[in-house]
Amino acid sequence: MPVATAVAHPNIALCKYWGKRDRALNLPSVGSLSLTLAPFSTTTTVEWGADFDELVLNGRTGTAAEASKVFGLLDLIDSWRPRVRVLTENDFPTAAGLASSSSGFAALALAATTAAGQKRSAEELSTLARRGSGSAARSIFGGWSEWKLGEREDGLDSYAFEIAPQDHWDVRMIVAIFDAGPKSISSRDGMLHTQQTSPYYPAWVQSAPRDLAEARSAIRNRDLAALGTVMERSALRMHACMMAADPAVLYWKSGSLWAQETVRMLRDQGIPCAWTMDAGPNVKVLVPAAHAGVVAARLARVAEQVHVLEPGGPARIVG
Ligand code: 2P0
Question: What pTM, to 2 d.p., does this model score?
Answer without folding.
Answer: 0.96
